[in-house]
Amino acid sequence: MKFQNYINGKWVKGKSAFQTINPANEEIVAEIAQAEISDVDAAVSAAKNAFNAWRLTPAPLRGELLFKVGDILKQKKEELSQLLTRDMGKVIAEARGDVQEAIDMAYFMGGEGRRLLGYTAPVEMMNKFGMAVRDPSGVVGLITPWNFPIAVPSWKIFPALVAGNTIIWKPSPETPAISAAFVKVFEEAGIPAGVFNLLMAPGADVAKALVDHPDVRVLSFTGSTTTGRSIAEAAGKLNKKLSLEMGGKNAIIVMDDANLDLVVDASLWAAFGTTGQRCTAASRLIVQKGIAGKLKEALTERTKKLKLGDGLDSKVDVGPVINKTALERIHSMVQAGAKEARVLVGASVADVNGKGFFYSPTLFDGVKPGSMLEAEEIFGPVLSIIEVNSLEEAIEVNNRSKYGLSTSIFTQDVNRAFTAMRDIFTGLVYINHGTTGAEIQFPFGGVRGTGNGHREAGQAALEVFTEWKSIYVDYSGKLQRAQIDNREE
Questions:
Q1: Tell me: the pLDDT tens digits for 342-365?
Q2: Which of 111, 176, 298, 476 is 20–30 Å from 79 (CA)?
Q3: Cα separation of 32 and 375, whole Å?
Q4: Can you give the residue ranges of every domain in the chain?
Q5: Tens digits of per-residue pLDDT, 423-434?
Q6: Which of the residues 36, 101, 245, 456 is marked catalytic?
Q7: Residue 332 burial (CB count, 10 A)
Q8: What is the CB neighbour count within 10 angstroms for residue 484?
Q9: Residue 483 has what pLDDT?
Q10: In the predicted model, what is the mean pLDDT of residues 70-84?
């Protein structure tokens, strides 16, 4: 397969190319045309030129185009899911969920084309009217990761488009094949030339040029905290609007009264689903001491039984990590962790038919608050167990993290559940469920080192891609000065 960049409604050849490989078997998936710095200028120019016509397209019609995209995604769900697994490695059931997330978001944001709600409110003067409406922000730059190569971009692309913006998308070079296939769906749906542009390239040069371009007014980034902070510095100097979704060090809190079987099922899914390569993955298990022994025993036995392999095999539980560099980084951190805690299972590179980048699902016991295992994001199949005495101590350990994306708690005590809901400071809180599994109708994002205050998904996503405009209509026929003429001393 070969894929090209998409600029101003055309697929554009590159001067050079790079390859994407299947992390499960290291076979070449596709050859990709490599975008250059000059392509950034061309894509931004196309988006800028297309903006006026797109913003003047009635929002309901913009929404109807998203409905078409959703319909096509639904028709091609299995085809796209298969390609996604080959490109990224996640097991096929998760790949189908990834595509389904985009289908859901297409229909949800398509409906926003009939709303894009502003509001009216009473004003202070006679014969005067006031309202607030949304304007699109302009040209938007999107930079997205490889772990959810359709779902995460859909959280940005659909609200940006329905709000009337034009976009340039720079996906991860680790998953370019599924990214290009996703854009082909928009082309088939009839997206106007210049409204949606795709740039694919390894390295940081193209992304940096997009961030620095003066005509890109909004940036939305999902990725590492280190990279996000660098983008924030550059965007701040140019006074750009910026949404950041970055790292996580998520925790499952387990109280003594928890349903043990449910905790085990949820913890395995939250920690080792997507091979631990989720921003919402559970990497800390904060356990009350009364249940800790039974839980560790059950988790160890179940973890040993997880099957590693090619994600296209429906019997496989855990797929590969994304590449060799990730594999080496994960193993290095696990080796360091083994010096400060006890390995219950795993802690080794796994051999699956001598090919691919597989790491054994790993459990650590005796992890201390503040240690590397407890504090640092590993972004792999590693779960660290921390024992505590009480709910208050568990919440304190959780909130001490420099990240703040997702937390869950297992308890059958409604009082504890509501205390946790009030006192846990993360963007997502789950009761009797793992740390993963966001739905598109609610805001998604975190606090502290996880984000910069914006949210994706739900109606909150529109805040990133719109600007408020307050409008006053005075039909009194005379000068009326609010706060002056309407107040008697």
A1: 999 999 999 998 999 999 999 999
A2: 111
A3: 37
A4: 2-246+451-471, 250-431
A5: 999 999 999 999
A6: 245
A7: 11
A8: 7
A9: 84
A10: 98
